[in-house]
Amino acid sequence: MTAEHLAAKRRYMIRFLGAMLVYSVLIMITGRTIRHVDPTWAKVLLALLPIIPIGVALSELLRFVASLDELQRRVQFEAVATAGVLTCMLSFAWGMLEMAGLPKLPIVLVMPLFSAAYGFGVWRATRKYQ
Amino acid sequence: MNNRLRILRAERNWSQAELADALGVSRQTINAIETGKYDPSLPLAFKIAHIFAAAIESIFIPDEESTAP
User: What ipTM is given for this predicted complex?
Assistant: First the structure.
């Protein structure tokens, strides 16, 4: 790995992990306080607060992907495509199962589902080119 | 697509990591090109040709199926 790539990776890790740390703190605060907050607009703002560090984390991920070489970018693209397909299939299947009486899938679980599918996609695409 | 990258690299006693650094790509990319798992983009192919002071056609050999009319 070139010095430039190492620097880009280090910058990404620091900023991404920093954003995830802020997210963790905000989600704890939101979880503990939202029931006691009034009026509704304040509840809405509090609920949306953790989205800000998530947005920062994802934009750092995009910036990092742009710094990768062509094969690594292809791996990322294939991983996102795999994650998209898996998330669509699984959430659609669950939606159909809800009609059969299964409990509703909380929409907040879609992002973790996509993240897990993305991890699988990176593993799969990396193996393909080894 | 087949290629002579491994041969050319060995002639100069370069490791995959050294060639990767010279080209500004990862070692995994060099390995994938050498094993035929990945065909480089045109700009990268030109960079490779330049670094080995050879013509692209002498380094990368298309498969017979891809050149059939």
Answer: 0.85
